[in-house]
Amino acid sequence: MPEKRVVPVISSLTDLESKLSGYLNTDTPLALLLDYDGTLVALADNPGSTILTANMKSLLNRLAAHPQIFLAIISGRGLRNVQSCLAIQGITYAGNHGLEIESGDGTRHDYELPVEIQKHYTAIVRELTEKLQRNGAWVEDKKLSLTYHYRDTPPALVEELKNAARHIIESHGFRANQAHMAVEAKPPVNWNKGEAALLILKNQFGINWTQKIKVIFAGDDTTDEDAMRLLQGSGISFRVSADPDLETYADFRLARQSVVEDLLTWINNVYTN
């Protein structure tokens, strides 16, 4: 069974070249699965304020166009939201932690929530908005899951609002997950970024995908751990974190978000040089 542990840290392109030498080669296709917030872009006080650097955008476009590389973005954002952020055509996007999936050809593979769960979701949005959208805290309604943001809330009020949000979410049977200065409400279904990643790989490469391709996954949040857990032993995953004591299902820790550019540069160098 996969276990969390403290893993080796990677801080530069040189680290990647030395510690993963030989993992990738131009003869073997690569499935590159990436989170968005905190991974491709630095976290911002408001999701609408994130900025994709020019170099990162250029790298992503080059990798997406390479015939040996399959690129998929698996985000907690709503599907259309993350698509608009990147605006890269012909790649696979998964939104709402994998509840919404759209392949590069437009094919959808959405997880259908039962009607009763949808009713509870509507009630959570209404109750959080009416009772707790104050003091700088706000509700991001993604239609299938939501995020209660409190990054701009005065520190003295954070614990009270966070606990109240968790109580409302859980009282309706949803899962309250801790995120970066936020609480996420996820439906009580056996589906997450890990299950989405496996579905995407199976749909693209077949049930024996582990024998055909190399896989790289990178993410920065607790919700990304589901993918890291399910991909352990079948690919290489990276957890973005500055915490040297972090225990993770990933194979390596990226010391900071900017090292993700080094990761993409390393991949680009392998497949284009």
Automatic annotation (TrEMBL):
Transmembrane annotation, as ranges: none
Xref: Gene3D superfamilies: HAD superfamily/HAD-like, Trehalose-6-phosphate phosphatase related protein, domain 2
Enzyme Commission number(s) of this protein: 3.1.3.12
GO MF, any single term: trehalose-phosphatase activity
Gene Ontology biological process terms in this record: trehalose biosynthetic process
Superkingdom classification of source: Eukaryota
Position of the signal peptide: none
Enzyme class at the top of the EC tree: hydrolase
Keyword annotations: Hydrolase
Entry-linked CDD domains: HAD_TPP
Cofactor requirement: a divalent metal cation
A Pfam match: Trehalose_PPase
Catalytic activity: alpha,alpha-trehalose 6-phosphate + H2O = alpha,alpha-trehalose + phosphate
Pathway: Glycan biosynthesis; trehalose biosynthesis
Functional description taken from the UniProt entry: Removes the phosphate from trehalose 6-phosphate to produce free trehalose.
Protein family membership: Belongs to the trehalose phosphatase family.
Name recorded for this polypeptide: Trehalose 6-phosphate phosphatase
Gene of this entry: OTSB
